[in-house]
Amino acid sequence: MDEQKPPSEQKDADAPADGAVASEEMGSAEGDPLKPPEGASAGPGPEPESTDTKGPPQAGSTPARRCALCNCGDWSPHGQRELQRFEPAPDWPEQLVGHEPPEGPGQSPPELEPVGDDLMQIGFSERVTPAQLFEPTGHCWVHRWCAAWSAGVGQEVAGLAGVSRAVFSGISQKCEHCRQMGATIPCRAAGCPRLYHFPCAAASGCFQSMKTLRLLCPEHVAEAVQMEDARCSVCDGPGDLRDLVFC
């Protein structure tokens, strides 16, 4: 005859199983221990800093890089290509002569317009100074197409030359389209005084030859008929040059 265990021993023998069930029920009620409670931080360390650079810079932060000709940032939807850092001109110190802030010597120049990619934010006001567009070493940041299309800029083995001189010229040159400073791309029609920023050229209906990097303003766009890339690749006709779409 089998020996029966006392009730107290039977209860002790069943306790581990009951305890395991109770533990599982408690865990499901409290939630997954691997996930932080709702509203709590995912880890003990500080939250990562935001990489969004569209907002205004915080006090003490590094200013956002901008093109010294069009005022757009590193990336722009207007096709200026990459933002590059260009070497100073050999006569960089001499170029600063005569470019004092409008308020007079020793006065701080006004703050630059915010960096932006909207067409309403292209260019600079008439109060811009070289100190705001150049680094203390004389280097400047300019988009490749803003530089390559500018008057006086040439292509050399080492890259584009004359970019800093173009920036100096743009300080006193107003765009025909947006009426802001920094315009260095001229209409190539004889005697035409119109100048543009690279993004403003397309917005105003200029003809831009991608093969010769020459621009014709809307008043002289008819002269583009003689250019090779002014003809449609499908019908081989010029059509309305202001509506011609480029790859």
UniProtKB/TrEMBL annotation:
GO CC annotations, alphabetized: MLL3/4 complex
Gene Ontology MF annotations: histone H3K4 methyltransferase activity; transcription coactivator activity; zinc ion binding
Pfam families, per database record: zf-HC5HC2H
Domain (PHD-type) ranges: 117-221
Region (Disordered), start-end ranges: 1-65, 91-113
Intracellular or extracellular location(s): Nucleus
Superkingdom of the organism of origin: Eukaryota
Biased amino acid composition, Pro residues: 103-112
InterPro entries the UniProt entry points to: EPHD (IPR034732), Znf_PHD (IPR001965), Znf_RING/FYVE/PHD (IPR013083)
GO biological process entries: methylation; positive regulation of transcription by RNA polymerase II
Keyword match Methyltransferase: yes
Protein name as it appears in the record: KMT2D methyltransferase
Source organism (scientific name): Haliaeetus albicilla
